[in-house]
Amino acid sequence: MNIKAVKAMRGGTHVPSGTTPVSEPLDGDSACDSGSGSERRSGGHESGTGDSAKGPGRRRAVVAVAVVALLAAAPVVLAPYPVSAMSRMLAFAVLVLSVDLLTGVTGLPALGQAAYFGAGAYTAVLIGIHITSDALVQTLAGLVMGLVAAAVTGWVAVRASGIVFLMLTLAIGESVHQVADTWQAVGASNGLAGMPPITLFGGPPLLAAGFVHWWVLAVAVAVFAAVALVVRSPYGRTLRGIRDNEARMRALGYRPALARYGVFCLAGAVAGAGGALWAQQARFFSPGDMGFEVAALALLSVVIGGPGSLWGPCLGAALVLLVRDNLSASIGGHGPLVLGAVFIAVVFLMPRGLAGLTGARLRGLIAARGARLRKENAS
Amino acid sequence: MTPQRVTPLLELRGLTRSYGSLTAVDSVDLALAPGERHALIGPNGAGKSTLFATVAGTLRASGGSVLLSGQDVTSLPEGERARRGMVRTYQHSSLFLDCSVLDNVALAVQRVHRVAHRCDRAARRFRHIDTEARRHLDSVGLLGRAQDMAAALSHGERRQLEVAMVLATEPALVMFDEPTAGMSAAETERFVALMERLPERLTVLIVEHDLDVVFRLAERVTVLHLGKVLASGPPEAIRADEAVQRAYLGSARTEDLFAEAGGER
Amino acid sequence: MGVVSVFSLSRTIAGLALGALVLSGCGSSLGESDTAEPGGGRSGGDVKIGLLVPLSGVYAPVGEDMKAGFELYLDQHDGKLGGHDVDLVTADEGEGPQTGVPAAQKLVTQDQVTAVAGVVNSATALGLRDFFHESKKPLLIANAGADAITGARKSDYVWRTSFSNGGVSGALGPAVAEEAKGSVYLMAADYAAGKEMVAGFRKSFEAAGGKVAGEKYTPFGKTQDFQPYLSAIRKSGADAVFAFYAGAEAVNFVKQYKQFGLADKTPLYGTGFLTEGGVLAAQGKAAAGVKTSLHYSTELKSARNKEFVDAYRQKSGKPPTAYAVQAYDAAAVLDKALAKASGDSGEDLVKALGGVGSIDSPRGAWKFDADHNPQQQFYLREVRADEGPAVNAVVRELD
Amino acid sequence: MATYLVSVLNGLAMGSLLFAIALGLSLVFGMMDVLNLAHGAVYLVGAYVAVALVADGAGVAAFVLAVLAAAVAGAVLGGLLAALTRATAHHLDQALLTLGVALVVGEVLTLAFGTDVHSIAAPEPVGGGVTVLGETYPVYRLLVIGFGIVLAVAVYFLVERSPLGSLIRATVADRAMVAALGVNTGRVLVGVFAAGAALAAVGGVLAGPILGAQPGLDEKVLLLALVVVVIGGLGSVRGALLGAVLIGQVQALGTALLPQYASFLVFAAMALVLLLRPTGLLPARTAVHA
């Protein structure tokens, strides 16, 4: 959490970040340019003028294509359950992406994204029951509802940063959850059931898990691409600037609260789309699907995956759901034990999260980590 | 040059800042003509830093006013002053350490060019931002390190990057807060050379301990003592001023006059 | 690496992978019916049954009781249901649909169970309804009480061996109207079950001429201190209180009801969950005198129940609960239905479920009504804690 | 009116417990920037110590013994957490680490004590009730209020008036400066971490007769403590006290006055405070970089 910023705020004084010893090049996928930044660094001293990231960029594109191809191939070979589990992970990964936009890219630890996830999901279910089973309409409506909900509530949170932001988003999330939990029109705590299967472009209902999976995958990939674009755009740079040194941004003439409000709304839209996807694959939504636990797991997925990287948190999302849904029952309901052990292990074994685990970087990380520890213990 | 005839770029009128009963800056009047290189000196505790911060908007003034090109900016926060062309550097470099050197400068450039909130294209597609940022890096001699993390820069290089960032906001007035503090002799030499290359039209206010640097760079010098302006004028006049000598000697901190500032970091 | 070679390589890999996957044909999820795997459920005379109960989260104590109840039935019948050896697959329902729905889907589509029993949470049960309805697999709800499960959203494939919320509380209404001297204050946790419990009670209570002094819902799962509500009850001048709570909230409510001196003056009524199982053990003497309605009590005098209580005690070391009985009965229902079913499919089993007739249960004989809900006897129980551990003594049968 | 006064009294009892629990969380955050998400688990350890030792209503001596045992257990856990969190400098990683510990500790407690709700009886002599303003009020809660007052005074003298306290406050304000002065901050930090955790565990014993012990209680308590800390101001002792009293009242008096909004009150109060004063009501003094 951006505690530096908290400290700066509470004193009302400027804490110069230059005094903190953060001088390790390897500290972070928090790094600028979540995508190409890491290659830049591991690439060492390239000329610095050309497109030095071309080689790794291609390799990444190949990996991305392969991953999407494998995900797309899943319904052909796998039985319904693993496929629907993958759809669930994808929908959850979209929620995690929205948290990553705030937490990883902008440095705002968010615990309230489940609220916008829920807003999108309820919208999709209500449209499915009462208006149309068209998946595109539902998803777009979910996205818009997430955006609107974030725009309406976000102003409360974006003035703050650090743990204050965390607590304000928690308050938003819990309040919205409470409303859903007691509001009869959306089924209160029993949730909204009876959503018909989705259709696409006027086609037949998609009952089979495989077709639903393809739809969820397509939307998830589109959202991922959109978020990746934002992260690489000038706006993404602005957001990273806020994360790194908000006071300096202000001194440069930026209005950080405005930029934060923007990304908050954006993240709300992404979460809303994720909620719509979740509802479409489950054909049901209840307050339990948007509670504190969901928000916390989404934030944890980001931390596990490596904040700021985009694919790391997605992998984190898959890992978290895998542990919770599949491992828990097989060890007599002690899923939390495994989850806790995973958290501890991640901190000690993967200091930069899953995203830190790219081949050559691993060795460097271990060396850098040793150096950092020595330095800290010395201070 | 007679700054009184044209509208001063920066004008302070009775600027005061107090902490409770302590008045750190006591009705300071000062005017900087466009393009002027002005240095602010004084013994430790003279109120330089407070005056500097109050002018920059980092601190709120308790009284008096700050005018930029004749417009009152006293009530504006630092960021708004920056948008009007008045920027400062920080004693302890304030950079985006987890971003590349190029990104540090690009952040300043893209704000000025009003693309800071564009997210429809990747940043590198905005070629003019890139070019502009590299030009500023080149001007401070950091182009070769454009792709490195800011955190990997040495102390002196960080100062250079600060300058590049500040220049990239296309300011009318740049305020340097003890820019050479903690620099080695060689770094200081490079820095002074960099300062001497700054565009002519740029107005500069510099707070500095190293009087050698001050007398090389400044066209006019203002001496602050106990929060008040003790003397103001061309470097030669200040050097000869007896009151100034007394103030420095009387404070029993002669070393401040000629030695590099110690204990700043 | 050259760009061209990279791309062609990737194409090759993708092509190979896809081809291999298609050829292997080890399964697919593109069929219209998710579970049309012939013979998957029963091979070689075995039958696979899914038990979906919470093993983690706040409902874990309920889940444990249900698991013990279901297993007890199997133990008593040599691990057979309807003559088939049972392969029992237990899954963790967790706290809500987030975990419960995927777990049930796994049981049906992955483990290919013939039927699923369990489900504590009503939202999970309602969320699963369409899935079971379309998969044509029987789901035996052994706890979740939402009225809609066997009401507005009933399905041929969803059956309930427990209760409906409105049924349990509705049974108590006339009794309280008769016993309480004046008006009654209604309190419940603020969620769907709480609302249904109060609504069910209120309806039959007012029909029997009862008067309501006030109605309050407390934040569900968040209320630890009931003092503000207890003061409001005192101020309302109510002569009795009807309350619905379960788990930790039930413990705190009943204990504080006693600590703040209400128990001595204002009788407390509720649905049986207020004083059931581990909850009652934690409340101890503080619960003495609390009167509740439920379809079961360990203190039922029947021989069938005595035998059940002894066997259950021997197995798990503590007295049984209504939750255990509900799961025990789910096993009994499956036993009968599997014996009668003419084939392997869900349709066959559902047809057999319609004909299981009367179930000889520790709670007393019961049978399914037209909505697949148990038609059963409710009892008025009163907590006695004079000597030994507190128990729910049976006062009388409710009608 | 009397009804509301009883609620105020009750709010004070809850506030006393919250203060004991939140204090360590606040100081650890202020001094080390560590958001200790295992704080609730430490509390629950204390509660289960009480379950193990005095569940069925023991005498005063046994209760005091339980308090001491919980303090020791809490201190050990706190020291362990302090050592663990020093292994990483990244704040999100530290939070993740402490959350991992919280989950493991919670699960181990469940394995040892089962999933059932446990209640803990107040010590025999104070198990009854007295009449306050015409209503019966449990004596034990009055004692808890007394404990809160004693604790507040003791902490005030320790932190605001003693040399150790000035060191603690200086560390909150500017850790680097204190370290530069040659003070071994490591020992102070571990000490405060352990003491804060011990206090939370003691809170678990003392809250036992009111809240009992069950899996999941750690999360609820942690959430409330976080709200208290944020409202009061991170790292501030006086802030933690004010925040605890305020949240106690919001929960008791607020619920009595606005029962229909009970579930929103705590978060609404927090949002309101943070919107007006983002640094909390009584923020700790930080170093001034002029």
Automatic annotation (TrEMBL), chain A:
Protein localization = Cell membrane
Q: Where is this region: Disordered?
A: 1-56
Q: Where are the transmembrane segments?
A: 61-83, 115-133, 139-158, 206-231, 258-279, 299-323, 335-355
Q: Which domain of life is it from?
A: Bacteria
Per the record, membrane topology reads: Multi-pass membrane protein
From start to end residue, where is composition biased (Low complexity)?
28-37
Q: Which UniProt keywords apply?
A: Cell membrane, Membrane, Transmembrane, Transmembrane helix
InterPro entries under this entry? ABC_transp_permease, LivM-like
GO terms assigned for molecular function: branched-chain amino acid transmembrane transporter activity
Q: Which GO terms describe its cellular component?
A: plasma membrane
Name of the protein: Branched-chain amino acid ABC transporter permease
TrEMBL record, chain C:
Keyword Cell wall biogenesis/degradation in the entry? The reply is no
Annotated ranges, domain Leucine-binding protein: 47-386
Asked if the keyword Signal belongs to this entry, the reply reads: yes
* Any single Pfam family the record assigns to this protein: Peripla_BP_6
Q: Which domain of life is it from?
A: Bacteria
Cite the entry's keywords alphabetically.
Answer: Signal
Task: Show the CDD domains listed in the entry.
Answer: PBP1_RPA0668_benzoate-like
Q: Which InterPro entries match?
A: BCAA_transport (IPR051010), Leu-bd (IPR028081), Peripla_BP_I (IPR028082)
State the family it belongs to.
Answer: Belongs to the leucine-binding protein family.
Q: Please report the name of this protein according to its UniProt entry.
A: Amino acid ABC transporter substrate-binding protein
Give the source species. Streptomyces sporangiiformans
From TrEMBL, chain D:
**Bilayer topology term:** Multi-pass membrane protein
Annotated localization: Cell membrane
Which keywords does this Swiss-Prot/TrEMBL entry list? Answer: Amino-acid transport, Cell membrane, Membrane, Transmembrane, Transmembrane helix, Transport
Q: Which residues form a coiled coil?
A: none
Q: Which domain of life is it from?
A: Bacteria
GO molecular function (one)? transmembrane transporter activity
Q: Name one Pfam family in it.
A: BPD_transp_2
Q: Which GO terms describe its cellular component?
A: plasma membrane
One Gene Ontology biological process: amino acid transport
Name the residues that span the membrane.
12-30, 37-55, 61-84, 96-115, 139-159, 189-211, 223-246, 258-276
The record's PANTHER family line, in alphabetical order, gives: ABC TRANSPORTER ATP-BINDING PROTEIN (PTHR11795:SF442), BRANCHED-CHAIN AMINO ACID TRANSPORT SYSTEM PERMEASE PROTEIN LIVH (PTHR11795)
Give the family from UniProt: Belongs to the binding-protein-dependent transport system permease family. LivHM subfamily.
Q: What is this protein called?
A: Branched-chain amino acid ABC transporter permease
